[in-house]
Amino acid sequence: MRLPRASPAAAYTASVTALAMVPGDRMPMYGIEHVSMLLALLVITVLAITWARRSGLTQRAKRTLAITGWLYLLLSIGWSIWDFLPANFTIDQSLPVHLSDVLRIITALALITRSPTLISITYYWGLTLNLQSLVTPDLNYITHPEIEFVSYWLFHTLALLAPLVLIFGFGFRPTWKSLAVAFGSLLLWAGASAVVNALTGANYGYLAHAPAGPSLLDVMGGWPFYLVVAGTMILVVWSLMTLPWTLLQRRNPAPMFGSRGIMRLADRQQTRLPGEPLRS
User: Fold this and answer.
1) How far is Cα 16 from Cα 14, in angstroms, rounded to an integer?
2) What single string gives the DSSP state of each residue in 185-250?
3) CB 181 within 8 A of CB 263
4) String of b and e for 198-226 (b: at least 16 CB within 10 Å)?
5) Phi, psi of 71, deg, nearest 5
6) Which whole number is the average pLDDT over 29-47?
7) pLDDT tens-place string over residues 230-249
8) How confident is the model at residue 143 (pLDDT cuts 50, 70, 90)?
9) How many CB atoms neighbour CB 197 within 10 A?
10) What pLDDT, in 10s, does the model give residues 83-104?
11) pLDDT at 10 over 70
12) Closest of 27, 223, 238 to residue 133, by C-alpha
């Protein structure tokens, strides 16, 4: 006996329901959507770093970075406009004050300009604070689950991928000045976000209270104690992220990139992977 075939609309509804993509719900942590995106991120990261190491920082690679940065910037601006539409706007979510909102703009400009200051912020913010959004995502489906899902993973993935490619692919090296720039910028963002929270009653940056879902903040104590713990942990982790580059500099010196001594740029001819061709 042949079973009746479900209509495309019914199949679509069933798939969305199975993935819990319904307005008012949230993406389940380490559910099928979460794990699938993490696996895709891993594959994309390996391919992107391999491409950067093999190509080197050629004019063609610079154009690719700039085009990617402009597209990222336009998408970020478009998403902010989308958030401000009356049907989507909420005072506690839509203002472009989230750390990820600021990081998107900084990352896009870093790809376009390759500014040592912006690359520094992208490296430290993107590989730690942004990484938490990928490992323990706090994704609430508000009005358009599919769009919100795609935008969440697209923006956070690019914010992670960009510093990995710039640092481990093209050979930019952070310094202790890089850390100072990134941490100072973080304090400026936190101060501005705290003012916005006080004026609106929102919780941007989780500076007013911990998020509703599970996060790393749960093991750091209650508010405001977790802010001090988080700040201290960030400084320690960022120091550990800087130390290997300092030690590498002693063994394999690289010249400064830019005039302020914030970032170094290694000679990729001397640090190529086995099997990579020499580049002129």
Assistant:
1) 6
2) HHHHHHHHHHHHHHHH---GGG-SS--SS--GGGGG-STTHHHHHHHHHHHHHHHHHHHHHHHHHH
3) no
4) eeeebbbbbbbebeeeebebeebeeeeeb
5) -60, -40
6) 87
7) 899 999 999 999 999 999 99
8) low
9) 19
10) 888 887 888 888 999 898 999 9
11) no
12) 27
The DSSP-derived string for 10-43 is: HHHHHHHHHTT--TT-BPPTTSHHHHHHHHHHHH
CA distances from 71 to 74, 81, 160, 239 (A): 5, 15, 16, 32
Determine contact, residues 43/266, Cβ cutoff 8 Å: no
Cα–Cα distance measured from residue 192 to residue 171, given in angstroms and rounded to the nearest whole number: 33
Instruction: Give the model's pLDDT for residue 137.
Output: 75
Checking if the pLDDT of 33 tops 90, the result is: no
Q: Are 112 and 19 in contact (CB under 8 A)?
A: no
Rounded Cα distance between 193 and 187, Å, is: 10
Angle between helices 32-55 and 59-84 (to 10 degrees): 150
- The answer to whether 207 and 193 are in contact (CB under 8 A) is yes
Sheet holding 256-257, edge to edge: 172-174, 263-265, 256-257
Residue 265 phi, psi dihedral angles, 5° rounding: -130, 115
CA 86, CA 89: separation in Å to the nearest integer?
5
Question: In Å, how far are 73, 126, 131, 210 from 219, measured between CA atoms?
Answer: 35, 22, 17, 11
Question: For position 122, what pLDDT does the model report?
Answer: 96
CB 40 within 8 A of CB 259: no
- Contact (CB, 8 A) for 69 and 110: yes
Name residue 48's amino acid. Answer: A
Cβ(183)–Cβ(230) below 8 Å: no
